[in-house]
Structure formats: structure tokens, C-alpha cells
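Hi there,

I know you've been waiting on this one. I reran it after we fixed the sequence typo, so this is the corrected version. Both the input and the resulting structure follow.
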Amino acid sequence: EVEAEAAKIQVEEDARLQAEAEAEAVRIQAEEDARLQAEAETARIQAEEEARLQAEEEAEAARIQAEEEARLQAEVEAEAARIQAEEEARLQAEAEAEAAGIQAEEAVSLQTEALTLEEEEEARLQAENEAAAAKAIDDARIRAEAQAVAAKHQSEEAARVQAKEEADRITKAEVEEYLMAEEKARVAGFTAERYAAIEEPGERAFQILIDLGMVTITPDPDDPLYDHSKDNEFVV
């Protein structure tokens, strides 16, 4: 009985120890599992944090890249717009300059045409005045010659008086008309063709001085058209 009791006690003790050992093992295993789970959770949290940080970094990098690309795109578009604006301004300036040049050429052409018409009109008036003056001189010469022929059949005194009266009449009427025509021709301006018709340089220069009023020809007293009423004006 004692041995049986001892054996029973031993068995119970062994069972208790076994149970305690198994319980300790279970506890240790549970603690290890809990530790491993905690480490896994920590790893998960760390992985999530790293993933979050990486995502934020990638998002920031993407934002910076997008901003840089947008800035570069804006600069490229602004440069293209500036170049296009400069090109349009250049083309517009060239077009305006071309239009201004054409307008200026047209104005010069119109002015030249107007001057040509004015010169032609002045030349025509000058030619008419010269023709009228030449006709007046020719008519006066013819009348003077006729008067001279008539004077042969009259006394010298009667011929002189009649010739003087005729000369006075011519001087006061037709010669004044001739002088007026000459003055108009001088004011209108003598053409180069008229001077070119004078072959001798000295005569041409003398005629120019006369036309400019820088030289005055002294009247010939023997000229039938001479006005004796102005004798005192030519006495030195």
C-alpha cells in the first residue's frame, strides 16, 4: 500500500510536472507566437510607412516633374508666341514700308506728271508770247518800212513827224504788249532748248544775263521804234 501510494504520488507528481511543463511550453509558444505576430505587425506597419513615404516621395517627384514640364512647356510656348509675334510684326512692318514706298512712288509720279503738265503749259504760253511778240515786232517793222517808203515822197519834216507819231503809237501799244509778253516769258522761265539754240557761248551767256535782268540794253536812237520821250533817262 505504501509503495502503491508512493507510486501514485509519483505518477501524480510526474503528471503535474508534465502538465506544468506542457503549460509552460504552451505559454512560451504563445508568447513566441505573440512576439512573432507583434514583429510581423511591426514589419507590416513599417512596410506600410515605407510604402506611404515612398508613395509620397514618388508623388512629390511626379508633382515636381509635372511642374517642371509645365514650366518648360510654358516657356517653349511663350518663346514660340514671341517669335511668331516678332515675325508678324516684321512682316507687318515690311508690308507697311512697301505700301508707304508704293504710295511715295505714286505721289512722286503724280507730282512729276503735274510738273510735266505745268512745264508744258508754261512752254506753250511762252511760245505763244514769243510768237505774239515776234509778230508785233514784224508788224512794226513792216509798218516802219512802209512808212519809210512813204517818207521818200514827203518832206523830211513831215516824214519825221509822221514816223515819230507812228513810232509813238507802236511804242505805247504794241511795244508795251511785246514787252509785257517778254516779261511774262521771263517770269515763266526760259527753257533750256531756247538757250541751246544759241550756238555762240558768249551770246548765250549774254542772253541769259538779259533774261535775268542783270544787263539792260541801251535803246538805239536810230531804231524806228525808239521813244525819244525817254532821252533824259539814258543821258549819263
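Quick highlight: The chain has a mean pLDDT of 76.

Best,
R. S.
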